[in-house]
Amino acid sequence: MIALQIIARLLDYPDEALWAHRDDLLSALADSQALDEENAAKLSAFIKPFCAAELLDRQAEYCSLFDRGRATSLLLFEHVHGESRDRGQAMVDLLDQYRAAGLVLDSKELPDYLPLYLEYLASLPLEEARSGLVDIAPILALLAARIAQRDSHYAVLFELLLAISGVALNSADVAEKLQQESRDDTPQALDAVWEEEQIKFLSEQGCASAEETAHSQRFAGAVAPQYINLDAHFESGTAGESRP
Questions:
Q1: InterPro entries, per this entry (predicted)?
Q2: What's the whole-model pTM score?
């Protein structure tokens, strides 16, 4: 599915190769059949100004949006398993899916990296690709809402993925759930996490004092949980779609 390949490339880190072939994105979009006229126009409207900017500016924008904090991480299992042990098994299972499809990863990215997952779906028949998007629809809606809160044009790419999936779910459906959520990309939130990790490391080395323990506890609630359970909304909004 060409549309998924285009969106996957746009969600990957902007590099020289993309800028050298940016005109090809619009040419490929013209051959896409997965998007209706309105959504194809939205994707085109994203591509043109996106590729007209300086590459360094787009790289800085990308890092600021996707690499600061966990709330907008493009690692899918970050929003499902966090740091639990279940994440490792989920990675193994996803790798098995890739291998079953005849794909061998030569990328440095983890298997649950969204652009990589989209590349995998793009290699499948249309209905199977849509089913794969349905599986991650709650995550896509959550990311769309969080990114929209940051006033980033990237939000449209996640809305387009939801449109391709066919699920009755979008960023507006989950925006209200985010009103009480603390952003984890502010300097204060990032400092709090760094402080907590430092104390945790020292504690594991057997060097933590009572004062350090109290310091760790003080920062423990500095960043609100970034994982919102959307299952109830998803089940009521998609009329019969199933989750893994």
A1: DMSO/NO3_reduct_chaperone, NO3_reductase_chaperone_NarJ, TorD-like_sf
A2: 0.73
